[in-house]
Write a structure and sequence with these properties.
Helices cover 4% and strands 33% of the residues. By secondary structure, the chain is mainly beta. A hairpin with an 8-residue loop joins strand 12 (176-182) and strand 13 (191-193). The radius of gyration is 21 Å and the shape is globular.
Length: 330
Amino acid sequence: MPGPTLRVRAGDTLSVSLRNGLADPSNLHVHGLHVSPENNSDNMFVTIAAGDSFDYQYELPANHPPGVYWYHPHHHGFVADQVFGGLYGAIIVEDPDPIPASRERVLVISDITLDSAGTIPAATAMEKMSGREGDLVLVNGQLTPSMTSRPGERERWRIVNACVSRYLRLRLDGQQLSLLGIDSGRFEAAHDVDEVVLAPGNRADLLVTGTAGTSVLRTHTYDRGMSGGMMMGGGRSTAADDVALASFIVTGDDVATVAAIPGQPVPRDLRTATVTARRELIFAMGMGSGMGGDTGSGMGGNMDGGMGGGVGGGMMSATINGQVFDATRV
């Protein structure tokens, strides 16, 4: 893990044949792509039973924004367990005009918990309520890998937060960081930053200019809060300590200055657009039957592994306008 990086361009047709080798149903979500949610495109309601296959086809519009996206299963009730287990990968929509860089890296950051037998233990009741954070935080499936560069090299880092619940507050002290954008948003000019915060599912397009020395890519403490309720009080998430993710070693002779970054097209400003409809959506957590509740996963999936699968009547259920999720109701 992660799965292969898919590279596409605006206007492309992406065809994917998915074979489900799991014991549970699954499906595929292309997270962030501006494509149809219907038929055999990015359709959350497709169910691929264990052992079955399904052919997806995604038509990217000609004006699709460049950037870093990702894919993962999104079958309701199984999302968090399947993503936590390692099913995800990056998608790159290439820039129409290349951004000068000495090197590009795709960094998919995830977390996982393994028992002494090397298997993933079942989520606890507390983790089902408040979101699961793994004991190990990995970069491209590796524990604290090393990366090397030369002084003056400008690297482009495409970062995906593939953790189901962990927030990443990323720092690379001692190096120069410039942020091109978050998710599909792109700044007109890169912003110099000291840190980048990514919630689960967020992506960053980051430029790193090397300064001689060894730096450590870390995720620092971030209090994302916890669900309150009868089973537990409030408090902090389990990510109470900073975590070293990777070493970045910059050594050798200086390299020539990389060309300037061209100006980037920015999204249309919607603040002055005509409003054609208004909705009020009230998100809440309440005591319920545990049927279909989204129980704290950043991926939108019930962590018990299915609707009512062992949660029982004492669990909290996520509601929108007082209703729990129902796949048959639009």
